[in-house]
Amino acid sequence: MPLRSxxxxxxxxxxxxxxxxxxxxxxxxxxxxxxxxxxxxDLQAHLDIPRAVLxxxxxxxxxxxxVERRPYRPGRxxxxxxxxxxxxxxxxxxxxQWGDRHYGAEGGPLRVFTHxxxxxxxxxxxxxxxxxxxxxxxxxxxxxxxxxxxxRRDDAVSRALRGPHRLLTPLAG
Amino acid sequence: MPLRSxxxxxxxxxxxxxxxxxxxxxxxxxxxxxxxxxxxxDLQAHLDIPRAVLxxxxxxxxxxxxVERRPYRPGRxxxxxxxxxxxxxxxxxxxxQWGDRHYGAEGGPLRVFTHxxxxxxxxxxxxxxxxxxxxxxxxxxxxxxxxxxxxRRDDAVSRALRGPHRLLTPLAG
Lengths: 173, 173
What we know:
2 copies of one chain form a homodimer. Chain A has 173 residues and is an alpha+beta fold. Chain A has helices at 13-21, 26-35, 40-47, 51-63, 83-86, 89-103, 156-160, and strands at 67-73, 76-81, 111-115, 140-144, 165-166. Chain A has 7 helices and 5 strands. In chain A, the strands form 2 sheets. The first copy, chain A, has a 3-stranded antiparallel beta sheet, with no helix packed on it. A two-stranded antiparallel sheet of chain A has the order 1-2. Chain A is globular and about 40 Å long. At the A-B interface, α1, α2 and α6 of A face α1, α2 and α6 of B.
């Protein structure tokens, strides 16, 4: 049997999911869209990613129905997560939690997530222990955590995220 | 500022996590280790992955403390998830759920997961609604679901997974 270099031999839906979101950079792009970034130039500056790579990844995400483009003024589109895209929140959230635990700053997490409706910090599972629910991302607020580095990045997105910010709402500025 | 082609500019722990688990194939390897696959040759046959690629990915996972090698007889090692690796269960589980929803077989999921202690099927969040807990993977049982294809794969791992199987326990055969 010939060896394959792709996932064709895998009938698991995880394999198919990874074809879609398992590309280098893709989950970071999704993370930024959850944070409220909506413009190509902001994504590019915040992720510090080559323009062609970002373009290609976004085209694939649009093709897969995970991201949609919506005109916000003539000739200019903004980028939004679709419902299918929003459903990936827990994958992104769990990876952030795992990363904080094993690769985070010594002072603690870079970002803390709370249930916007009641202010309770979300547990590692993404649940609000006060309300006993798993709030959807548009009911989650992100706050700078104790692990914020002393030397801060100075792009527009990093500046806008220095205060509390509700996920999926557009960034100020 | 020069454009970067890697994640160095990202001080988010998600970026670091993706350096570790975001490589093509890596989450599929982790999935198989959760399923109880412990031998290189079984992984290779089940994933249908080039030997050199599998070798490289495993070496990186061992290096990162996610997988450990343990001799099971002279000159032979088996592969096990470490505690750090086991913590990735929810990332894998959520991606499987998302994939089933959007790319799954028409008949339903390929695999169904239950809480081994009580038999309740886990919800999409990975919680057991009967016990109101999120069971760890060694307390989760996997069953063939309605989406199992008529034409089945015939490697040793696929055969061993035709019946119920508790995660993280070695496969029969």
